[in-house]
Amino acid sequence: MSGGHWVSFNAIPTAAHTIWGVIAGMILMNEWSPMKKVKTLLVAGIIGVVVGFAMDPWIPIIKRICTPSFVIASGGFAFIALAFSFWLIDIVKFRKGIKFFAIVGMNPLFIYLFAHLGGNELISKIYNPFVPLFFSWGGTLTIEIVVSCLVWFTLWYICYFFYKQKIFIRV
Q: In the chain, what are the domain boundaries?
C-alpha cells in the first residue's frame, strides 16, 4: 500500500465511478421530459444500491479500496441524490439556499486540487492553536469537529471569493 491507503488496482473501479458520472450527464442532457429523467435516474439508482448491497456478502463494500460492490452501491446512491436534486431544483423550482452550494460547484477543480494538495492541512494548522482556547470544555472530539467545520467554511469562503472575482478554474 502507498501513503493514503490507496492500492494500485483501484484504477478500474475509479474509472467506473467516472462512467457513472458520464451516464448521469448523458441522461440529463437527453431530450427526454424532466420527469422521465428523474424516473430513469431513480430506477438506475435503486438498482445500483440493490445490486451493490446484494454483492456485499461475496464482495464486501469497502470504500478505501474501491471494491466493485462499493462502486455500484455508491453510484446508485449518487443517482438517487441526483434524481432528488434535479426534481427539487429543476422541476419543483425550489431555489432557496442553492447559491450556497453553487458557489463551490462553480470551482470544483480548484477546491478539489487545493484540498488534496495540502490546503486542508494548512488551514487546519492555522485554526489549531486557537480553537482549544475556546472549546477545550468539550474535549478533543469537540475541538476536532470545530476545526473541521472552520476548515470547511474557509474552503467555501475561498470559493466564494473566487466567485465574486469571477475567477473560475477550468480544464
A: 8-94, 99-165
